[in-house]
Design goal:
Pfam family, one: Gate
Keywords: Membrane, Transmembrane, Transmembrane helix
Distance between the termini: 45 Å
Number of strands: 0
Strand content: under 5%
Mean pLDDT: 84
Radius of gyration: 22 Å
Low-confidence stretches: 354-370
Structural class: mainly alpha
Shape: globular
Protein name: Sporulation protein
Helix content: over 70%
Length: 402
């Protein structure tokens, strides 16, 4: 009872402080809101929407069941999750956060995961997308595309290690599993896929419409959180709360022989990764390795903005948020550690630091890949407006039918 009262007071006080900040700094809050909105409709919406829609169709057509049967002998021994976790892992790596949480929640709603398995899975399928790490952070902020290889390698290795650690999570709560190691059968996988498709009673048009509506609904929620935390981050800075919190970080930075100028960027990154990464890239007093280590931690921790999005998605299920939050802290430290450990053997000795800053990694070298991020910013708003119009049209038409 006492804890609930304290929580009520803290939440109410936080809301009052934010309201005072909005009244005191209306122009700064407006600029931050516009910045968050631009980020959402230029990058986030057009980059995530195709993955969300396709994933819904893959689930409806039974392809996910097929993947689950094939990957069961791999995902179960390594991460102690069903084979469908392989689908969530792959889609999370390709599309970035909070996709892993969305797909995990969907698999839990489909009863393909137990609660413990879902909590394990969501903990290590929270990835920053390659587009963001290479396009926004490496090229946009650091003007060094080679750095993206270092950040991506540390990010992915850290998350895989989190998955291997989380396999031990919840073993006391988990019921005995009837899984037996066996060779995956294509025939069994195809049978499962066909059975799932036959159980899907919605016609193709209805399935496609539901996929669009569900995906856009999730993206609207994500956009709200991006704008909200963009404003909160700006207000905390102008109210000197960020500076106050940074004093504690300075002590840790001095211990690591990092410049104290990184403290403000670090605190900002704990709230919102884009601003934190951008501020970190501009600290002239820090070496590139030091800035890469801090950025790796920020990307691994994901920021409270991303975590709030995940919490909102998980709230629709019985999946607990605390394991995910713990995993983000661990991922942040592991990603930073991998950046430090691999910096000399990978970035320096292999010669990534000698690559011209306007070049790109081999797997991004194609006619459109070099300027993919810039093109996304040019055409992203048009894609967003088009699909929002489609969203309104489908919703209006269905309301007329009902």
């Amino acid at each position: 009872m006492f804890k609930t009262k304290i929580k009520t007071i803290v939440l109410a006080a936080s809301a009052i402080i934010m309201a005072i900040g909005l009244i005191t700094f209306p122009e700064d809050a407006f600029e931050a809101s516009i910045r968050g909105l631009n980020m959402w409709w230029e990058i986030v919406f057009p980059s995530l929407l195709p993955f969300f829609i396709i994933s819904e169709l893959l689930i409806g057509f039974g392809v996910v069941k097929f993947i689950g049967v094939i990957l069961e002998p791999i995902m179960r021994p390594l991460f102690k999750v069903p084979g469908v976790g392989g689908f969530v892992l792959a889609m999370g790596m390709a599309s970035g956060f909070p996709s892993g949480a969305k797909y995990t929640a969907r698999m839990r709603q489909e009863k393909q995961l137990s609660r413990i398995e879902a909590e394990r899975l969501v903990s290590f399928t929270n990835y920053s997308s390659p587009l963001f790490m290479f396009g926004a952070v490496s090229v946009g902020f650091f003007h060094n595309s080679s750095l993206g290889i270092m950040l991506a390698l540390s990010h992915y290795l850290g998350n895989i290690c989190v998955g291997l650690m989380m396999r031990f999570y919840g073993k006391d709560e988990e019921k005995l599993n009837s899984y037996h190691k066996k060779t995956p059968s294509i025939k069994t996988a195809l049978q499962q896929m066909h059975r799932t498709r036959m159980n899907e009673k919605r016609p193709l048009g209805k399935l496609l419409g539901d996929a669009v509506l569900s995906s856009i609904h999730t993206l609207l929620m994500i956009g709200g959180f991006i704008i909200l935390f963009s404003v909160i981050n700006k207000l905390l800075f102008h109210m000197n709360i960020t500076t106050f919190l940074a004093q504690g970080v300075i002590i840790v930075l001095h211990t690591l022989h990092f410049p104290e100028e990184l403290s403000i960027a670090f605190i900002s990154g704990l709230s919102e990764i884009t601003l934190g990464s951008q501020m970190t890239s501009g600290i002239e007093q820090a070496t590139l390795m030091q800035k890469a280590i801090v950025t790796s931690f920020i990307l691994g921790f994901s920021g409270f903005s991303i975590q709030a999005q995940v919490a909102s998605i998980l709230a629709e299920t019985d999946i607990r948020f605390s394991p995910f939050f713990f995993a983000r802290i661990v991922h942040g430290f592991l990603a930073a550690a991998f950046t430090f450990i691999l910096w000399k053997p990978i970035y320096e000795k292999i010669g990534l630091n000698g690559q011209p800053s306007n070049s790109n990694p081999v797997f991004m070298m194609n006619d459109n890949g070099i300027h993919l991020y810039e093109k996304m910013m040019d055409y992203g708003p048009l894609i967003t407006i088009a699909f929002l119009t489609l969203y309104l049209f489908i919703g209006f038409k269905r309301n007329l039918v009902h």
